[in-house]
Amino acid sequence: PLERKRFYQNVSISQGEGGFEINLDHRKLKTPQAKLFTVPSEALAIAVATEWDSQKDTIKFYTMHLTTLCNTALDNPTQRNKVQLICAAVKFLETDTICYRVEEPAALAELQKNEWDPIVAWAEDRYNVAIGSSTSITGPNIPASTKDTFISHLASYNMWALQGIEYVITQLKSLILSMGLIDRHITVEKAVLLSRLEEEYQIQRWGSVEWAHDYDLCELRARAAAGTLFVHLCSESSTVKHKLLQD
Amino acid sequence: MAALGSPLRTLRGLLRELRHASARAGRPYRDTPAYQHVMAAFRAHRVTSEKLCRAHQELHFQAATYLCLLRSVREHLALHHEYHGKGERSPDEVAGLVGFRLPQQPGGKG
Predict the structure, then answer these.
(1) Which chain B residues have any C-beta within 8 angstroms of a chain A C-beta?
(2) What PANTHER family would the database entry show (chain B) (predicted)?
């Protein structure tokens, strides 16, 4: 169901055995698969509670991105393990938006070079890898050693954080932009702008259509922000309950 | 490091968004866990414009990201409501578009 009436007055959080729980009046929140909704971080629980408390007459699930991410981490509906998640994430590098360049129109090619080259350079330097970019239809040729570096870097994240990382990559269509966010090198607004560079170029030329362009822009920002926040809150060792994050 | 601007500005923006969210719930925003958590975090770090340590940067980035989330969700909802939320017109309204009126049938439709 897309929407449902708000059936609760008060939202609160409490600490249980496995972590923090969300209470809707006297009921404990459950996941779609009827598991107890427990999160490892208090800050994350507070943010989820805020999502539930922000709902007015109807519960708009499609705006509750943090809740959705937690449900995915708890239920794992696609039934992927850590290795599969990491492979899915790194595979995106082969078609990474910021490595996939056009040759025409010249103005767009120039814009891509000016905006994307610095980020590629940052990633190459930060991770000590070769990435490059390509105008070929088959995309960039990523060396195996580069993939291996990213695979072992992502392996250092726990399962929850990885769900978040893979989510951000899928939204932004770029592993490199996502790492830029996770590493706090760029803001969400900047990452989304870079992800939508071609759209922004067309908008500058032809004008913006609010009900489509701004709509998509806001939604992508919301999702990327939620994913990034989720990753950071699930990775902070000081605030996290490790029992829940078993791989 | 990401270009974040002034932490005070981020905090103000964040509080504004929390106020919006609470207005929907009809509760004073200072009572909410989110407000208390944000204020406690900023106080604990005493985030000023002096870029001192890494923890400050991390907190500021987190606050800015959360601000982006709240703001984008609110803007997205507003756009959704304005352009996509109206649903279908009733038969009366449709008839009215072309200048007709539906017939009144005192006994209901046959």
Answers:
(1) 1-4, 18, 21-22, 24-25, 27, 32-34, 37, 57-58, 61-62, 64-66, 68-69, 72-73, 75-77, 79-80, 82-84
(2) PROTEIN FMC1 HOMOLOG (PTHR31716:SF1)
